[in-house]
Amino acid sequence: MNGSVDETVRPVVAVVVFPGSNDDRDAKQALERLGAHAPRVWHTAEGLPAETAAVVLPGGFSYGDYLRCGAIARFSPVMDAVVEFAAAGGL
Length: 91
Known about the structure:
- The protein is α/β, with parallel strands linked by helices.
- The protein is built from 3 helices and 3 strands, in the order βαββαα.
- The chain has helices at 24-33, 69-73, 77-87; strands at 12-17, 40-42, 52-56.
- It has a 3-stranded parallel β-sheet with strand order 2-1-3, covered by helices on one side.
- α1 (24-33) links the parallel β1 (12-17) and β2.
- The longest helix is centred in the last third of the chain and has 11 residues, at 77-87.
């Protein structure tokens, strides 16, 4: 291998999807074109995929683009896993 990177290993980059998210499919496609495995994770999921290397929270009109939609989104079950992942140094 001469110090080269194993090209078959693809980092897992979770793309979190909330109701009304925008560009989550675009984020997934861009990440996959860059060589990542980018599963879309619905906001009610209890955790992130195994081996997650990074998390993307796409913008858009989550929860109908109501005022304080981020405050609503923080109560989604997946956010506990995202907070824990970030606290451990995750991207």
